[in-house]
Description:
CATH superfamily: Flagellar protein FliS
Structural class: mainly alpha
Order of helices and strands: HHHHHH
Largest sheet: none
Oligomer: single chain
Number of domains: 1
Mean pLDDT: 85
CATH architecture: Up-down Bundle
Number of strands: 0
Amino acid sequence: xxxxxxxGANAYARVGVQTGVMGASPHRLVVMLYQGARQAIAQxxxxxxxxxxxARGEAITKAIGIVESGLQQALNKDAGGEIAARLDxxxxxxxxxxxxxxxxxxxxxxxxxxxxxxxxEDAWIAIAPDAAKMAAA
Length: 137
């Protein structure tokens, strides 16, 4: 289906991502999770608009996996207190909305979840200097 050139480019991209993950701080890893989930949602929107049902489902499944297995699992509910509990509930909500978006073929729901992730990503990026200071201490 893909030419040799695409396979090489994909392999190169995977190595780049793996290298980025291995050298990333915990704070940067969370940013990468937000970016990955948002990218998967963007792909789902594109596939929804093109009527590509299987690819849409794969992209939404990827976004749900990042939210549940990445962001939600990374929460420290003991140390995070109320903030972690609220994020946990928000991540659960996002997962449900993504599932509904797939079933109902709703771009509006995809846009909603992307907006929530964008807000969290922006807030997470904004605290980067404080996170770096804490890590250095």
